[in-house]
Give the backbone structure.
Amino acid sequence: MSQPVLLKVYANFTPAGEADCRELEEICSQAIAAEDDHDPFVTMLGDMVRLSFEGLYFPVEDVEPVVERLALAGATGKMDVLDLENWRMTRYQARDGQLKKSSAPLNNVLDYSGH
C-alpha cells in the first residue's frame, strides 16, 4: 500500500545561481517524498532554480529564508505549498525585491483557477 501524498510544493525563481541550488538541495534532503518519487526535488534550468515535490514532509520553514534572500536580491518567481491534509495553499511570491506570502483554502484556489 502506498503512502498518501500530504504536501505538494512547486516553485521557480530566476535569476538564481548554483550556490542557491546546492543550498536548497541540502535543505530539501530532509524532505520525505512519496514512495515512488525518486526524482531530484531541486533542479537548475539556466539561471532558474525549480522545486518539485510530492510527499509527506517538506522543510518549508527552512526553505523560506532562501526564497526570501532570492527575492531581496531581485529574483522573481513563486513557491506554492499545497497542504492536502489541512486543505490549504500557501503562496510565496517574489517580485520587486519583496517576498509576499498569502494563504487560502484549496477550495478557493480551485474556484479561481477555472476547475
User: Anything to note?
Assistant: The longest helix spans residues 60-72.
